[in-house]
């Protein structure tokens, strides 16, 4: 029997031992490779699932944000309309407020109001 890619011959008893070692190493390597593929596959599926869940949560938050923005715009328009001059002048009558008449101003004399 000869080594792979070698011209050197080995005795028959050593060739059987060499073949068993090579076969066992290959079998062990295949088992490790199989386990690695399974672990990587599970981690890929878990990562993809996590991304999908975050995507759905993000779309829900965007929908909620657009609803809140629309409601905010409506409330701003309502606040502007309620604070307009026409609305305030109409509400003065309903609140039974008295209109301002003549205003008397106090003359401070030389301009100083308080002294040290």
UniProtKB/TrEMBL annotation:
<protein>
    <recommendedName>
        <fullName>Cell division protein FtsL</fullName>
    </recommendedName>
</protein>
<feature type="transmembrane region" description="Helical">
    <location>
        <begin position="28"/>
        <end position="46"/>
    </location>
</feature>
<keyword id="KW-0812">Transmembrane</keyword>
<keyword id="KW-0472">Membrane</keyword>
<keyword id="KW-1133">Transmembrane helix</keyword>
């Amino acid at each position: 029997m000869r080594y792979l890619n070698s011209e050197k011959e080995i005795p028959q008893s050593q060739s059987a031992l060499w073949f068993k070692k090579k076969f066992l190493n290959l079998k062990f390597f295949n088992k490790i490779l199989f386990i690695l593929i399974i672990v990587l596959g599970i981690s890929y599926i878990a990562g993809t699932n996590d991304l999908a869940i975050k995507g759905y949560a993000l779309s829900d938050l965007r929908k909620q944000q657009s609803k809140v923005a629309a409601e905010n715009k409506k409330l701003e328009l309502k606040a502007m309309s309620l604070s307009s001059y026409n609305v305030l002048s109409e509400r003065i009558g309903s609140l039974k407020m008295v209109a301002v008449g003549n205003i008397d101003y106090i003359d401070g004399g030389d301009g100083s109001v308080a002294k040290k």
